[in-house]
Structure formats: C-alpha cells, structure tokens
Amino acid sequence: MAILRVEQLGKSYRSGGRELPVLQNISFTLNAGDTFAIVGPSGSGKTTLLGLCAGLDAATTGSVELNGIRLERLSEDERAQVRNQHVGFIFQNFQLIPTLTALENVMVPLELRGEKQADKRALELLERVGLHNRHHHYPTQLSGGEQQRVALARAFSNQPKILFADEPTGNLDAETSEKVVNLLFELNREQGTTLVLVTHDLELAGKTQRLIRVKGGQVISDSVMAESGSRL
Ligand SMILES: Nc1ncnc2c1ncn2[C@@H]1O[C@H](COP(=O)(O)OP(=O)(O)OP(=O)(O)O)[C@@H](O)[C@H]1O
Ligand SMILES: [Mg+2]
C-alpha cells in the first residue's frame, strides 16, 4: 500500500522579485513499511522536499498524498492535524522548544493528542535514546548530539506511520550514530513505521531499501536495493 504519493511536485521561492525554482517535476511513490534514503549535494532541495512530503510546507505545483490524504487541499491547521496523527519529523537543526526541558519537548506531541500518561511515555522514550538522566535539561544545556536524540524521541512519541529524518546522524559520533540508526530501523521493524531519511552518510543510505538521488531540484536516479545488497 502506498503511504506517500508525490506527483509532479514543484516548489519555488520568491526572492528579489524573481521566482527561484528549488524543486521541479518530482514524482515517486513510497510503500508503507519500507525504508528510503534521499541523497544529494548541499542545496539540491532535500530539506525542502522532506518538508513538502511531511506537510510542513505547501508545494507550488503538483501534489502530495500522505496516507491517502491530499495535502494541497488542506488548510494549514488541517495539515498540522495530519502531521500530529501520522507523521514524525526530525529536523536538520532539531527545532526543540528552548523554554521546555527535554522531557517536556518529548511530551508536546503526546499532549497534543490528549495522551494521559504523556510524562511516563516521554521518559521511556528518553531512556531508549540514552537520555533519561538528562530529562530535566533545557536544550541549551544539552550537547548537539543530545539535542538530536531528544528530537528523535519526540519524533517517535506519537508512533507515526511515517518518520521523516533530515540528517539524523549529522551531529553524532560513530557510536551514538550507530545507536540512533539501530533505533530507527527497530522502529521500522517493530511498528512498521515507514522511514524516509535524508543523509550524506552513504553507509546509512546503504541500509535502506530504496535510494533516491536529487540534484538541482530534480530526481536524477531512483534505485531499489537487491537481495544481494547491490542497487538495481
Ligand atoms: N525560504 C526560502 N527562501 C528562499 N530560498 C530558499 C528557502 N529555503 C530554501 N531555499 C533555497 O532552496 C535550495 C534548497 O534548499 P534545501 O534546504 O532544500 O537544500 P538541501 O538539499 O537540504 O541542502 P543541505 O544538504 O545543505 O541541507 C537552496 O538553494 C536554498 O537556498
Ligand atoms: Mg538540508
């Protein structure tokens, strides 16, 4: 079953009175439960693409269908609701709320959903990313890698059908990076969460079932991993 259908997607920004095209004619369909990597040079449009797929931003042209819902037909509030129900997102720059502790940050999506035991579940998630003893820290009191792990716990918290992660290991040392990657793939196996990862780490990209390369705002290749481990 398709969880994400992207058709003829385009995005341009207005800058200095001109239209600056950032994405053009992007089309692909992702099946539920699969794992995907999006790779490409800096500035090629990966973060923009992830944001459009997750309903964080609206496309200029084309359509995104997430779990059967056409995002371009929704208002901003409706898109926020779809995100809270179906989507986990790990931002390239974490975007933790600075006035909330690690625990409170992880609790936000749970509270939005009206979960009763938000604090208990948030603490469990922080434990899984190895941060239970930092739960009362504010983002400024955490290292970059620790903030990344809080962002990961927050993205997991609403048990999303699809998780988008923008450079999830970008700021981590080898050991922590391995832990985070294992956690992502565990979530995929245990809960059937579809994983969409943007990464510069080719080893991580190699672990996914499908690899999409973007360059200059366009898809230049789309390959499936063979059983043998090579790309078709
Ligand atoms: N709000 C905006 N207004 C104008 N231009 C933007 C805006 N956001 C992004 N861009 C431009 O769109 C292009 C793609 O940006 P994007 O962040 O998607 O790249 P990326 O592939 O994620 O790069 P990186 O690997 O460095 O994170 C860049 O040239 C960027 O300058
Ligand atoms: Mg980016």
UniProtKB/TrEMBL annotation:
The keyword Lipoprotein applies. Residues 4-232 form the ABC transporter domain. PROSITE patterns: ABC_TRANSPORTER_1 (PS00211), ABC_TRANSPORTER_2 (PS50893). Keywords: ATP-binding, Lipoprotein, Nucleotide-binding, Transport. Coiled coil: none annotated. Signal peptide: none annotated. It comes from the Bacteria. One of its GO terms (cellular component) is membrane protein complex. One of its GO terms (molecular function) is ATP binding. InterPro entries: AAA+_ATPase (IPR003593), ABC_transporter-like_ATP-bd (IPR003439), ABC_transporter-like_CS (IPR017871), ABC_transpr_LolD-like (IPR015854), MacB-like_ATP-bd (IPR017911), P-loop_NTPase (IPR027417). Belongs to the ABC transporter superfamily. Macrolide exporter (TC 3.A.1.122) family. This is Lipoprotein-releasing system ATP-binding protein LolD.
